[in-house]
Design brief:
324 residues; alpha/beta; Aminopeptidase; 33% helix; 13% strand; globular
Length: 324
């Protein structure tokens, strides 16, 4: 997640405590949509373990460490038969001083009409690299931020590649440059806009490596901006998405790669997270490592979201809409 703590004093001054934010809920239905596909916990673990390993040296954009991560993600797409959206999987950033790449995969929709519409499932694969100060551990491994989100999106790509359930086309995007100021997503949306890219919705996955102690699984940024939370809960039949007051206070909607897409397309583009400022002490810290992640939680998170992303990719009409 892009640094936000520099903005906190201004944000807290701007927020009004009179808003009834703690009372917001989302509707759910009693009959969940079952996904027969089962997410493999060992595969989740193996993927995350490599992406957050010391070998990748914290995956800072423009370094040899993130280059290794890029190759790893390309090989994953090739193995799962997810096609490149551009001529290759690599989408070169236009706004970074040295070569840097988003990794973009594509699955065409099966419906002749709906395949003209796109769903974007995304996460950023860069992190903040090495500590400048000399210390025993200098590697910011970024397991939670955001190797966990990348793992979730990769599992969704594997799921759709195997089941071929998507009637709409899907872009699976792993962004570089998020920690540098959302550079990867800003670069990509400019290219897509020139193509008259027909975006339906974007789900960006950000920091889902540890669970919250709440009565819902995850929260969504920009809760009131669309009916996405309500529809996800309807699709899963569970209280999957809730409202987190801290998200509104800190304006997290504007702090991750969903905002670049929203700014250009003005469509439902939101981030999903389980980092609630109480359950993880190692944000942008060298202790954000694989061993701190809850693999069972991550597996359950991905499994619970499969019915939601399936419905988003298959409903005959665009059920998720902007509310403001």
């Amino acid at each position: 997640m892009k640094k936000f703590y520099f903005f906190l004093p201004l944000i807290l001054l701007a927020c009004k405590s009179t808003l009834p934010i703690t009372q917001k809920t989302s509707k759910s239905v009693s009959k969940p949509i079952e996904a027969a596909y089962k997410v493999n916990q060992n595969e989740v673990s193996d993927f995350l373990k490599y992406l957050s390993s010391d070998e990748l040296e914290g995956r800072e954009t423009g370094t040899s460490g993130i280059e290794k991560a890029a190759v790893f993600l390309e090989d994953f797409f090739k193995e799962k038969k997810v096609k490149p959206y551009f001529s290759t999987y690599r989408d070169t950033l236009t706004n970074f001083k040295s070569p840097a790449y988003n990794i973009v995969g594509f699955l065409e929709g099966s419906d002749p009409e709906l395949k003209k519409e796109f769903v974007v499932l995304s996460a950023h694969y860069d992190h903040i690299g090495l500590e400048k100060n000399k210390q025993d551990d200098q590697i910011n491994n970024g397991a939670n931020d955001d190797a966990s989100g990348v793992t979730a999106v990769a599992e969704m790509a594997k799921y759709f590649a195997k089941t071929k359930l998507n009637k709409r086309s899907i872009l699976f995007v792993f962004f570089a440059g998020e920690e540098k100021g959302l550079l990867g997503s800003k670069s990509l949306v400019q290219k897509l806009e020139k193509q008259n890219f027909n975006l339906y919705a974007q789900l960006n996955i950000e920091m889902i490596g540890v669970p919250m102690k709440r009565d819902y699984l995850a929260y969504i940024t920009g809760f009131d901006k669309s009916n996405m939370a309500e529809k996800i809960n309807e699709y899963t039949g569970k209280n999957t998405i809730g409202f987190l007051p801290k998200e509104a206070e800190y304006e997290l909607f504007y702090r991750s790669d969903n905002y670049s897409f929203y700014e250009v397309f003005k469509k439902p583009c939101q981030s999903i997270s389980t980092f609630d400022f109480e359950n993880f002490d190692f944000y942008h810290h060298v202790s954000d490592e694989f061993k701190a992640m809850d693999i069972s939680h991550m597996t359950n998170f991905i499994q619970e979201f499969l019915p939601a992303v399936t419905q988003i990719a298959t409903t005959p009409t665009q059920e998720i809409t902007m509310t403001k």
